[in-house]
Amino acid sequence: MGSESPHAPMRIGLMASISVPGEPTLENIIATIARAEAAGFDTVWTSGRMDALTQLAIAGASTTRVELGTAIVPTYPRHPQALAQQALTVQTGCSGRLVLGVGVSHDTSMSALGFDWSTPVRHAREYLTCLSGLLSGAEVAFSGAEYSLSKASLPLATLAAVPPVLLAALGPQMLRVAGSLADGTILWLSGARYVRTVAVPETTAAAEGAGRPPPRVVAGAPVWVTDDRRSAYEHAERALTGIGSRPVYRAVLDLNGSSSPAQVALVGDESEVGRRLDELAEAGATDFAAQILASSPEEYDRTHALLAGYARRYDLP
User: Fold this and answer.
1) What's the pLDDT tens digit per position in 287-310?
2) Closest by CA position to 45, among listed 23, 10, 12
3) What is the value of pTM for the model shown?
4) Other residues' Cβ atoms within 10 Å of the Cβ of residue 50
């Protein structure tokens, strides 16, 4: 593992929905979340193969400590009031441990559902404005290009703490929205150089300008602890090849100086992966969200143990 360096502590999270040993059934995902809590992970994240918030509602009953986050809930298919109501319900069920990660998803995914994805930054700005007000219990009156609310409110908000809201972002405009209107951002396949030179400066400056606290910056990437780095890297190249062709990821990879998504993955032995985690923490990432990519049970357990051990180095709130 990496040395005890002087960087700020970084929470370690597990992308539970896509890091399941065996088939990604609901039962196995819930078991993966429980195992992560027992091992010492700070956060677990669920995604949308199955409904992300429903997974956490179930996991909340079988866990007591670990933070429960969505990465992510797509915004276009859910009205802000519907999402706020569901999120607050989950928040009451998990004793205030929810982190609500949302995002605009991708053009191809949302266009296939019939949504107009031509103005995603405007959509995110309006969505967060409405969502934040509803989560806080305020009466929201809003008239925008995409949403119109007239004295909307949620009485349930008085029964639950407002969960932190994070916005998935990669480009500078969306990062600025995340800093000014949310509690931070969730990144994917963003290496240490991009975190340090783009994500942290953009979100931090936007948060300061809006009078908000320093933002959370969640860096997400695949992880594989192994002695056979060459084979694991080749596997990662094949597994991630389609992502690198998407323009938004290609732009981020270029800014990071990476020719392919596999170069952002944390692949190697304990020393190498620990060093890469330290680089992300030193770059300013407040959180790391890991997809365990290992292909054998032994290397899955080895990767899981390394990440959990890194998480246990710090006593984080």
Assistant:
1) 999 999 998 999 999 999 999 999
2) 12
3) 0.95
4) 13
Residues 220, 289: Cα–Cα separation, whole Å: 4
21-57 pLDDT, tens digit per residue, is: 989 999 999 999 999 999 999 999 999 889 999 999 9
pLDDT band at 265 (very low <50, low <70, confident <90, very high): very high
Give tens-digit pLDDT for 223-232.
999 999 999 9
**Cβ pair 194, 256 in contact under 8 A:** yes
| Tokens 């192994």 found at | 226
**Residue 271 · residue 194 · CB < 8 Å:** no
DSSP assigned state of 170: -
Closest CA to 100 of 135, 139, 62, 124: 135
H helices of 222-267, in order, are 229-240, 247-256
The whole-angstrom separation of Cα 151 and Cα 149 is 6
Chain centroid offset of residue 113 CA: 23
CATH of 11-311, one of 3.20.20.30, 3.30.420.40, 3.40.190.10, 3.90.1200.10: 3.20.20.30
Quote the pLDDT of residue 3: 44
- ∠ at Cα 291 (77, 277), nearest 5°? 125
Cis peptide before 72 (omega within 30 of 0): yes
What sign does the CA torsion over 224, 188, 259, 112 have?
Answer: positive
